[in-house]
Amino acid sequence: MASVAIIMGSISDYETMKGAEQVLKEFEVDYEIDVVSAHRTPDKMFEFAKGAKDRGVKVIIAGAGGAAHLPGMVASLTTLPVIGVPVVSKLQGLDSLLSIVQMPKGVPVATVAVGGAENAALLALRMLSISDEKIAQKLSKYKEGMEKEVNAMSLKLKEVCENE
Ligand SMILES: Nc1c(C(=O)O)ncn1[C@@H]1O[C@H](COP(=O)(O)O)[C@@H](O)[C@H]1O
């Protein structure tokens, strides 16, 4: 059963959205992934959003570019948390970002940075970790790994500066 659904407005978004897929694979969390467009396939979007909770989906990650209405429209059709990923567009993604982040009161979409698909997956994992200790532990390890990487950078920088 997929706990996370990753959807995107077009296959052209996959280059960005595969970042979320990779994180979920790394954490061994089941996910479903599909192209769903509010504009181009409104009936499919309706069916997807209305059926997600009953299928066992707990969090939805929705990526779209340009007039990026998909995350907000999906959020309007479900009570599941929706995380929006603004995809880079002809306007560098500013249009996507504003379309996703400026939701009216009552219909929240948690919006990550332009192209921030990895963070969308990490946020979804944090949501799941509230009731899943295994994921919580993996997130702690991930955090420790990041800290080690930054400490290594710190040592490396000292070395570089000393040798200049
Ligand atoms: N923003 C939306 C929606 C939607 O919000 O329903 N459906 C497609 N799109 C976006 O159109 C862009 C160009 O799509 P094409 O590359 O297929 O022309 C994509 O970034 C997609 O997310």
TrEMBL record:
Function: Catalyzes the conversion of N5-carboxyaminoimidazole ribonucleotide (N5-CAIR) to 4-carboxy-5-aminoimidazole ribonucleotide (CAIR).
Record EC number: 5.4.99.18
Uppermost EC category: isomerase
SMART domains to which the protein is assigned, alphabetical: AIRC
UniProt key word Lyase: yes
Domain PurE as annotated: residue spans: 2-150
GO biological process entries: 'de novo' IMP biosynthetic process
Pfam families: AIRC
Pathway(s) where this gene product acts: Purine metabolism; IMP biosynthesis via de novo pathway; 5-amino-1-(5-phospho-D-ribosyl)imidazole-4-carboxylate from 5-amino-1-(5-phospho-D-ribosyl)imidazole (N5-CAIR route): step 2/2
A GO molecular-function descriptor: lyase activity
Residues that hold substrate according to the record: 10, 13, 40
Catalytic activity: 5-carboxyamino-1-(5-phospho-D-ribosyl)imidazole + H(+) = 5-amino-1-(5-phospho-D-ribosyl)imidazole-4-carboxylate
Family named by the database record: Belongs to the AIR carboxylase family. Class I subfamily.
Protein's UniProt name: N5-carboxyaminoimidazole ribonucleotide mutase
Gene: purE
Keywords, alphabetical: Isomerase, Lyase, Purine biosynthesis
